[in-house]
Inverse folding.
């Protein structure tokens, strides 16, 4: 007997018919003799709808009330699945985040899970009851409902699996695994049988939304096995594993993209000690996360242009902050541009091979695509380009690194 946490995403619980299919999948695992806990998302589109309602009330909202609104989507699906399971003769009950509870910190709208109480679940699971748990939500130290950031039910599932000591955490979604690139854009993308935690972490944080970044972080920390698989087909998916479990290491395992990028250029900043601190200090105080940075050497040593990227959501705040501190920083003007995309190639094989970045630059040059900013780490190379070339760049790079499906 294995203990398994099954997580079903938005499309998988998109309507009553699909929820009934999910109930059959849960029952099939129980019939194989396994002990099951389920974590669900809201119906697809529902969380977007709820966020839209909050935004209609005005853009400067109280994040605690945002959480209380957007957490409601999951309450509907867990109740419906518990009913569908009961119809199949399976003992089941729904659990909201606060009922377990999932304790989180108080950073509303992007809270982190700190601890989960599973004593009651353990007791009930031993009697054969299936807990159907709401993903994406918890309760903060202020006794208010919190949510974990978009895509957060993956993290709920992995955290619950770790707390329950589950043998596996199966993430059911609308694709049959993790691909070399987003299969909706790169039709030649290939499904990976295995991917390392580290590569999955990079892919997720660089934009591949098939798993939330924090879910991978948590799985890595607790050594929790994850499988990503389809809720529509019955076949094995992708296992996220330790590096030692992969014999044939690919040079590049995947190519990710993120459209959630904006570029800011400060024109003619003085080239003197302390300027970077004068720019990035206030941005950090304003909770703006800065990602890629380039600074040109100045001609004659007086002034230089400095370019960096932030998320689109932070753009307005970043520009306002820089304008407020313009006297301390000293620059001529600010340019900003949100028609950019970050494309990244990821692979643990890069550690031991040179030339990966060069192949990226040559491939983009051949397509006439201009690179605006570059950043690298041990296992990834990222470039910022004009958003208009997203598909072209992804497909060309996919071919250039030999990733295309046969
Ligand atoms: P769910 O609602 O099940 O959580 P998501 O929409 O959050 O599903 O994540 C699944 C989607 O992730 C897929 O439909 C796919 O378009 C996208 N995706 C992006 N990059 C990848 C990748 N490398 N492999 C698989 N899917 C990817
Ligand atoms: N329903 C939430 C969202 O859409 C959580 C999730 O689907 O993982 O972001
Ligand atoms: Mg998701």
């Amino acid at each position: 007997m294995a203990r398994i946490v099954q997580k079903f995403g938005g499309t998988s619980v998109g309507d009553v018919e699909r929820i009934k299919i999910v109930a059959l999948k849960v029952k099939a695992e129980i019939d194989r003799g396994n002990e099951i806990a389920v974590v669900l998302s809201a119906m697809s589109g529902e969380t977007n709808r709820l966020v839209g309602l909050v935004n209609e009330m005005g853009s400067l909202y109280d994040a605690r009330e945002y959480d209380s609104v957007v957490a409601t989507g999951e309450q509907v699906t867990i109740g419906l699945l518990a009913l569908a399971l009961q119809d199949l003769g399976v003992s089941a009950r729904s659990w909201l985040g606060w009922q377990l509870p999932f304790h989180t910190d108080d950073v509303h709208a992007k809270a982190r899970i700190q601890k989960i109480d599973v004593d009651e679940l353990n007791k009930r699971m031993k009697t054969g009851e299936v807990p159907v748990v709401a993903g994406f939500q918890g309760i903060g130290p202020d006794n208010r409902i919190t949510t974990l950031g978009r895509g957060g039910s993956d993290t709920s599932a992995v955290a619950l699996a770790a707390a329950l000591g589950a043998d596996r955490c199966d993430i059911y979604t609308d694709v049959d695994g993790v691909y070399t690139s987003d299969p909706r854009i790169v039709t030649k993308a290939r499904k990976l049988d295995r991917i390392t935690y580290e590569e999955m972490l990079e892919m997720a944080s660089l934009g591949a939304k098939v798993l939330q970044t924090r879910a991978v972080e948590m799985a890595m920390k607790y050594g929790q096995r994850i499988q990503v698989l389809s809720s529509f087909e019955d076949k094995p998916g992708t296992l996220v594993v330790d590096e030692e479990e992969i014999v044939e290491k690919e040079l590049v395992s995947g190519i990710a993209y993120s459209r959630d990028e904006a570029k800011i250029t400060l024109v003619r900043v003085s080239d003197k000690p302390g300027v970077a601190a004068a720019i990035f200090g206030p941005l950090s105080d304003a909770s703006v996360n800065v990602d890629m940075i380039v600074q040109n050497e100045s001609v004659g040593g007086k002034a230089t242009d400095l370019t960096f990227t932030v998320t689109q959501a932070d753009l307005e705040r970043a520009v306002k902050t820089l304008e407020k501190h313009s006297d301390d920083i000293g620059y001529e003007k600010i340019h900003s541009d949100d028609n950019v995309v970050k494309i990244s190639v990821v692979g643990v094989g890069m550690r031991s091979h040179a030339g990966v970045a060069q192949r990226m630059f040559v491939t983009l040059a051949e397509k006439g695509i201009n690179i605006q900013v570059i950043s690298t780490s041990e296992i990834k190379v990222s470039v910022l380009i004009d958003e208009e070339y997203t598909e072209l760049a992804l497909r060309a790079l996919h071919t250039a690194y030999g990733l295309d499906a046969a």
